[in-house]
Amino acid sequence: MTDSNLGRTSVGPSATSADATNQAQRLLDKLLAVVNIATPAAIYTHDHPDPDSIASAYALSFLLGHKLSIEPIIAFGGTIGRATNRAMVDQLGVRLYPLAQVRLDDYGTHSLIDTQPETGNHSLPNDLPISIAIDHHPMRPETANVKFADVRTDYGATSTIMYYYLEAAGIDLSTKLATALLIGIKSDTRGLERESSEADLHAYLQIFPHADLSLLARIENPLIPRRHFEAFHAALERSMIHDRAVIADLGDADNPDLLAELADFLAPLEQTEYVLVMGRHKGRLYLSLRTRDESRDAGAVISAIVGELGTAGGHGRMAGAQINIDEDPVPIQEMVRRRFLSELGLDPSSAGKPLIRNGDESRSASSG
Ligand SMILES: [Mn+2]
User: Which stretches within 133-248 are classed as H helix?
Assistant: First the structure.
């Protein structure tokens, strides 16, 4: 690795800024050429978009708007529940349309960002012709049908890929766009600590001077509604430790973003390497996985657990999945729990130990 002077290990994405610049210059015209400028354009994020998804959609709308003089809309099929994601949209004034309000037939250019056709994390019909897909998750076979597909797994964030397109297009970053991209890169790479390439770091450093750091702080430290604490409290009471894994159940979640939030909260737990959070929302079981185990890819682990039950995706240290549940969710959750433990080489029939000990137990443990 030539980037060892940056303190990076050989684990993780390997894109260089030189490659990123070349690719963007080579691909920009091809990207613009698939846009039908005679009709409105729509850009779709995940159903429950994370900061990278929001920022890269915002960047793509900016790029298409600037180069083609069109005004693409950004649409999504779910909710924005996580307080920091909500703050990002509100503070930056990113307009996101609920998919239910979008008449797909009215749009001539459909773009997927930070996702691909039939991934399960968006609600677009499978037969919708997709013009553009830009993503850093593993390539899916269905993406072969996309007119312009740019899928690069050696990048920590789709926001990074979008930065180089903006650079190739000669677009000056506005404060809001720079702040959005910075948050997108930071959140998908955990502050560039891991899962980031030299291309991500270079983009980050280029974007940084253009961002508004007090705006950034307001977005990253949002106020949190009381019901989040209530949901966390209940889930922590039900959480079980199995050797190097912890499994939490949020029950019926207000919104699926809460799973990611709880998974991130539990991830630093001492002496564990894996966190699996389950929760139900509108007839679906959602899973969120975090790991510090560098020998396994979180996306591969969750795919092995979910298998034929639903759809799964992820990369590196974080992954998520969705499973449709028609009736009683308990047997499915039990199957997921068992498969997860088996996948880690742990005893699937073990009940585990409660994360939250009773008063006597925790006092004696902490005094010893
Ligand atoms: Mn991403």
Answer: 158-168, 175-188, 198-207, 213-220, 226-238
Q: 39: CA distance to ligand 1 center in Å?
A: 28
The pLDDT value given to residue 254: 87
- For residue 14, count CB atoms less than 10 angstroms from its CB and return exposed for 0-12, middle for 13-18, buried for 19 or more: middle
Ligand 1 mean position to 166 CA, how many Å? 17
149-185 pLDDT tens trace:
999 999 999 999 999 999 999 999 999 999 999 999 9
Distance CA 114, CA 44 (A): 9
184 CA to centre of ligand 1 in angstroms: 8
φ and ψ at 126, to 5 degrees? -60, -25
Q: Of 179, 195, 220, which closes a domain? A: 220
- Residue 184, in any domain of the structure: yes
Query: End-to-end distance of the chain based on CA atoms, in angstroms?
Result: 45
If one counts the domains in the chain, the total is: 2
Residue 109: CATH number of its domain: 3.90.1640.10
Q: How many angstroms is it from 52 CA to the middle of ligand 1?
A: 5
Domain boundary among 220, 254, 289: 220
For the cut 50, the answer to whether the pLDDT of residue 52 exceeds it is yes
Same-domain pairing of 116 and 131 = yes
Confidence grade of residue 365 (pLDDT, cut at 50, 70, 90) = low
Residues 277 and 153 in one domain: no
Q: What is the pLDDT of residue 360?
A: 67
What's the whole-model pTM score? 0.85
Please indicate, yes or no, if residue 297 is contained in any of the structural domains. Answer: yes
Q: Which residue range is the domain that position 283 belongs to?
A: 226-347
